[in-house]
Amino acid sequence: MEKIRTRYAPSPTGRMHVGNLRSALYEFLIAKHAGGDFMLRIEDTDQERFVEGATEIIYRTLEKTGMTYDEGPDKDGGYGPYVQSERMKTGIYMKYAKELIEKGEAYYCFCDKERLASLKTYVSEGDDADEGKTITVYDKHCLGLSKEEVEKNLAEGKPFVIRQNIPNEGTTTFHDELYGDITVENSELDDMILIKSDGYPTYNFANVIDDHTMNITHVVRGNEYLSSSPKYVRLYDAFGWKVPVYIHLPLITDENHHKLSKRSGHASFEDLLEQGFVSEAIVNYVALLGWSPEDNNEIFSLKELIEKFDYRRISKSPAVFDIVKLRWMNGEYLKAMDEDKFYEMAKPYLEKSLPGFSEDKLRKISAMVKSRIEVFPDIESHVDFFRALPDYDIGMYTHKKMKTDAASSLQVLKDVLPLLEAHSEYTNDSLYEMLLGYIGEKGYKNGYVMWPIRTALSGKQMTPAGATEILEILGKEESLARLRDGITRLEKAAT
Ligand code: GLU
């Protein structure tokens, strides 16, 4: 059996958006599931769209997500160069374009801007890669040039492009793993440009040449490339090459069923990291955007994904990017995370919320919030009360289940204040023991005492820790100040 070889072939045009991440992940999983090779190829032939630094983002993202490639620009596997602009310098694209010209499958076109401007145009719609672009329907004018005319133009150094020659009659059929056999009328296929006037190949041409010469067996990409695929298949056929397995992935939409875009705010891997998601959860979630395993399990490490991934289970219905679900999943990853690793990642957020807090305290608070947050920025709303006591309503002292109200709380706070003033060891255990003594003496239920204390200390209905843990973090002085503040509030309301 032939070795499975897949490639991730990004254009360095900016951050790695979720759709690209999914293509990369599926390519990676298909290869690794079958013990094959996963390759990185940089598609930088569209110099106008090139963005400085974007290649570094690609490397960084693949590294962070654990999608280690077997071959790539910095890892030669014998199929290099792995960057299209470098491949171009080897003359590979021109060589194959000329071969197509020989076969009558392509031709030189010398039409200038003015002539092209006079031709029929349409604006590409739908999910096409050219969406929104103005497409010129080329009228095959230059196909009619004689060999001599072509030679003469070339000798004169007239600018040219090379176009694919697609007949106006007949049909072209190709197979996609998800969409099945697709047949299109050739008259609907334009004579697309293979080599541009700057000598660079178009993506449309380079992807075919490269996938073949790099022995790629499976091509996974967004379905915006589906409509161009018949043209690619015609190129494979013209060369007598085997067409790779095509898997065109369904669109990813936002919650409102609009195409996921920059405007959605969570379109790229880096955006998500900045929003406090962890790489493992993003990868796990993205794997499920269009693919599902046989069982109902949803939490998978990359290793488990490699074991389970069967591309035949990819669905062709649009996948909805559900940020609520991703948040949930991220929370699961945080819960399962090693304490130290969690602390390292949470630290910048903790330090921002609680400036001046000691490392020891931050570590304790980190352990308190670990199982309570979904993403790191949630930390602030859980820990803000440590920084400063918020203004709160004394209605908060009333708790049905704890059987507390304003009057009972005032009583309890007045009782415990001197005890806490006299106590010197402000540690959770010691404080707890001391308060249990008071509780036992009075014959109260724990909550009857702890609820008002916690309320006075935090001013919040929900806190990531109990009263005595909060006492320990706040320390004696601050704790006593807050308890006195609680007493004042309750007394004021009572008069
Ligand atoms: N360079 C193309 C892109 O970034 C890759 C499409 C493909 O995988 O063939 O969209």
Descriptive overview:
Among the domains are: 92-195, Glutamyl-tRNA Synthetase, Domain 3 (Glutamyl-tRNA Synthetase, domain 3, Alpha-Beta Complex), CATH 3.90.800; 394-494, Arc Repressor Mutant, subunit A (Orthogonal Bundle). Helices cover 46% and strands 10% of the residues. It has helices at 18-33, 54-65, 84-89, 92-103, 113-117, 147-155, 203-213, 229-239, 269-274, 279-287, 302-308, 323-336, 339-353, 359-369, 379-387, 406-422, 428-442, 446-458, 467-494; strands spanning 5-8, 37-40, 106-109, 121-123, 134-136, 161-164, 171-176, 180-185, 193-195, 218-222, 245-249, 252-253, 319-320. Strand 7 (171-176) and strand 8 (180-185) form a beta hairpin. Glutamic acid (GLU) binds next to helix 7.
Describe the protein's topology.
Elements: E1 5-8, H1 18-33, E2 37-40, H2 54-65, H3 84-89, H4 92-103, E3 106-109, H5 113-117, E4 121-123, E5 134-136, H6 147-155, E6 161-164, E7 171-176, E8 180-185, E9 193-195, H7 203-213, E10 218-222, H8 229-239, E11 245-249, E12 252-253, H9 269-274, H10 279-287, H11 302-308, E13 319-320, H12 323-336, H13 339-353, H14 359-369, H15 379-387, H16 406-422, H17 428-442, H18 446-458, H19 467-494
Parallel strand pairs: 1-2, 10-11, 12-13
Antiparallel strand pairs: 3-6, 4-5, 6-9, 7-8
Helix pairs in contact: 1-11, 7-8, 10-12, 13-14, 13-15, 16-18, 16-19, 17-19, 18-19
Bound molecules: glutamic acid.
